[in-house]
Amino acid sequence: MKNPGHAVLLSVFLCQIYITSAQDCPSKQELQNSLHQAQKLLSAQESSYLQSLRTLKKKLSLLQDSVVQLPAKPRNLTCPALDTPAHGRKLGKVLFPGHEAHFLCDAGYELLGSETRQCRDSLSWSGQQPVCREIDECLSSPCANAGTCTDEVNGFSCVCPKGWAGPACQSPTPTFLVTVMNSPAVTAAPAFTRPARCSAVQGTTVCSCEPGFSVSGRDSSVCTDIDECKLFHNGPAGRLCLHTCVNTAGGYRCSCPAGYNLTRDGRNCKDIDECSSRQNDCTREQICVNTYGGFQCVKVECPNTRDATYAKTSAVRCERNPCPAGSRSCSQAPNSVSFHYLSLVSNLSAPRVVFRMSASRMIGDSLRFAVSGGRSRRHFSMQRLDRQTGELLLTGPVQGPQTLELELEMSELERRELLGRYVTKLKIFVSQYEF
To answer: EGF-like domain: which residues (predicted)?
Structure first.
């Protein structure tokens, strides 16, 4: 209490309180103790107030510097609307700076251009406008044995030369001419044998088999099934079946594991999206994550520690609540924690980028990206794409099935002083199959 006049007035006021409450006026020592306590209280309040002013002044200065550096913007503060590509879809309707639009193509089409475009501060979109081009399945030469390929939407068809049959001209159709003297009578044939087609020509018997069968070595009047699954497991056109080949009488069929559908070409497998087709049992509190061959139900819960508390601001994001005055441990806790989920096939070729994190707007003068934790961090590394974006790199193939977990951190700095930390908890589901 620096002003003596204020001390006298406070003493008189305290004495009046005691008299009003039917108590004796306190002694001089008691008044001095009360004044000392009041002085300590006011000093603490003054210190807290000055600290708050310094923090606010620093933030205002940083904001002012960032505003000065920004280019002048037109009155319309949104990016122009983007067209949806023909035979495709566009995800994302928000046109404000920092927001993204994602593009997907229908089955049988491939994306040319940017899969993701971001609205920049200059109110222009990053990347190039994508288009969906029909996939030419004939480019991979799927028709074996000089078959002629005809491209179709989400598939192909083969015109096979003489002597070959099957969806990819992979099954031989040999015609065996066998000279038989006094051929025995044909008996009932098992499921994978057929009686030969025989005819007498100038005193000899000539026999042939239908496609998918060959004349038996022991009995020339019996045709035995050709096991295409063994004979053409890895032919010129690649594997006969992507997953499992089942031999049938005169041919074969392909099958897929649970969670996949057989494609129109009859050879490949396509993942079933249980989340979009509602073939899942996730509750309303859970998020459905489609994986290759299945799905996962996950529940996002915000961290709750002694240093800081968080509130959920979206389905996959938690923001830190205001910190108590003077709590250094709280101010150093992450400003936000985000949760993301990815799906990968087993033994995916690497290195390759699997995730990106960026800041739509910066207050500080630099960003730092790092893999800060997680039991699966040995499979990944972090690299910078540009000033505001970091890329997560898968450094080597990962054998499934397994679940990878790691934490990514983006730190914002101003003259090497930490302004904020932003954590992303990433969970990656690796399939047991390579498709």
So the answer is: 134-170, 225-270
